[in-house]
Amino acid sequence: MRYRFFPLPSDIYFMTHVPIHLSIVNFLIVSIPAVLVSLLAAVIPSRIAARLDPIRLIRFGS
């Protein structure tokens, strides 16, 4: 509606641009969980790996 980022061919579509409404609330609802899931996906395996003893794993294979 307000921003005209993506033009459309007027001979095919009845609109000349894709209507886009940017809202800070929608942005935050999507971005905050995405950052949290990304951090968890990095932190959980690294904490598990930090508990392992590398010498024991190399020596015995488990």
List its salient traits.
62 residues; mainly alpha; elongated
Describe it.
It is built from 2 helices and no strands. It has 62 residues and is an all-alpha fold. The protein has a domain at 24-60. It starts with 23 loop residues before the first helix and ends with a helix. The mean pLDDT is 87.
Instruction: Please state the average pLDDT score.
Output: 87
> Can you write the helix and strand succession as a string?
HH
Roughly what fraction of the amino acids lie in strands? under 5%
Radius of gyration using CA atoms only: 24 Å
Coarse shape: elongated
Determine the N-to-C terminus distance. 59 Å
- The helix-and-strand class reads mainly alpha
Amount of helix:
40-55%
Q: Number of helical runs?
A: 2
Overall number of strands: 0
* Major β-sheet annotation: none
Low-pLDDT windows of residues: none
Could you provide a short overview of the structure?
By secondary structure, the protein is mainly α. Helix content is 55%, strand content 0%.
